[in-house]
Design a protein that fits this description.
The protein is an alpha+beta fold. It has two domains: 1-266, no CATH class; 276-357, Alpha Horseshoe (Leucine-rich Repeat Variant), CATH 1.25.10.10. It contains 18 helices and ten strands. A hairpin with a 2-residue loop joins strand 8 (207-209) and strand 9 (212-213).
Length: 362
């Protein structure tokens, strides 16, 4: 398709609510294909078995849809209005990743993608160039960051996330694959240079080289995707992170150009921005959990896994006052809850006595 179509599509996309648009051939760079093969070979996917099972389809869009010719990559800014790292200094709150402090982005973006896809189909019919389209939002075996890195939207940083000159690290991605041929963008220049802030900042050393992340060590994976016990060596580094981790994104120098999201549904809900651990411990069962996190991606991990994460934060709080509240959970029917309650109770019980307490005892 010609430049006029690209311009009209870009205008339409921004009217719908997308912040940035890119175009590329429906191919994945060899370096990304090679990295995926290495990731699978080393079993760095952990419990995410679908990564291995769908690897052959993920390696290139045409493996999933042979007729595809082009990819339209859409970005929505979800930039926060506060520094995500500030919550890490508050041990009595549960830190939730920026992307999960509001409505689930999947449903918001998918609706917008369908709207834009309908416009594309109508345009192609009107111009006697009928084409098929398919929409994707992080739910299919599609290497969306690899596709985005071939567009003008941004480049893939050393932490594997797309970095934008306009929006820093805060972009949700969605894609429209199509059978029409569209002139591709000139890819963004990679602008990380010698900076390795994202690698250095990782609390668990999950990013072990430029563009290489071992999911089994990643706090986002451990608190969201990992269903069982978390290895004890990661418990203290998790700190008060109860759902996801933003460290590698938040420290990126390119965030100095980021702006707060203009999408009202991506603005953090007050109750999710800095919830107290005490408040989270008061959630008594799955029904209350689902009600509190209705419409949030947090809901999908379930009550018991969520409680496991909260107990890790409690254990790292250095606040002995939680002991009485969590001690009954040592006998919880859920093994992951009971184990973390026991760990947190022991950790808080073994805190060194403060100087003021020693003085009072004498």
């Amino acid at each position: 398709m010609n430049s006029e179509f690209r311009e009209l599509l870009t205008q339409k996309a921004k009217q719908i609510g997308f912040d940035t648009v890119g175009f590329t051939n429906a191919t994945v760079p060899k370096r990304n294909q090679d990295r995926l093969k290495e990731f699978i070979l080393n079993e760095e996917y952990g419990e995410m078995k679908w990564m291995q099972e769908k690897a052959e389809r993920r390696i290139s869009p045409d493996k999933m849809w042979p007729e595809v010719k082009s990819a339209i990559v859409l970005g929505m800014n979800y930039g926060p209005n506060t520094d995500p790292m500030e919550n890490l200094k508050k041990p009595d709150i549960g830190n939730i990743s920026v992307y999960a402090r509001h409505r689930d982005y999947h449903e918001i973006i998918k609706g917008k993608l369908k709207n834009l896809a309908g416009w594309i189909v109508a345009y192609s019919r009107k111009n006697n160039n009928e084409s098929d389209v398919k929409v994707f939002v992080d739910t299919a075996p599609l290497m969306e960051k690899a596709l985005a890195s071939q567009t003008s939207i941004g480049w893939q940083g050393k932490h594997t996330i797309i970095v934008s000159r306009e929006f820093g690290n805060w972009l949700f991605l969605g894609e429209i694959l199509t059978t029409m041929e569209i002139q591709p963008d000139k890819p963004s220049r990679e602008n990380c240079g010698s900076c390795n802030s994202c690698i250095v900042s990782c609390p668990t050393n999950a990013i072990y080289a430029d563009g290489k992340l071992d999911a089994r060590k990643c706090i986002s994976y451990l608190t969201i995707e990992h269903k069982g016990h978390i290895d004890e060596k990661y418990l203290e580094p998790i700190g008060n992170r109860i759902f996801g981790c933003d460290d590698c994104l938040a420290v990126c120098p390119w965030n100095k150009f980021s702006v707060e999201t203009g999408e009202e549904r991506f603005i953090a809900k007050p109750e999710l921005e800095n919830p107290s651990l005490n408040e989270l411990l008061n959630i008594s069962d799955d029904a209350e959990f689902r009600k509190k996190f209705s419409g949030s991606p947090i809901k999908r991990i379930g009550y018991k896994q969520f409680l496991r994460n909260v107990l890790i934060a409690v254990g790292n709080s250095n606040n002995k006052e939680y002991i009485k509240k969590i001690k009954p959970l040592v006998n919880d029917e859920s093994e992951i809850v009971a184990k973390m309650a026991n760990w947190a109770t022991n950790k808080l019980s073994n805190l060194h006595t403060s100087k003021s307490e020693v003085t009072k005892s004498h």
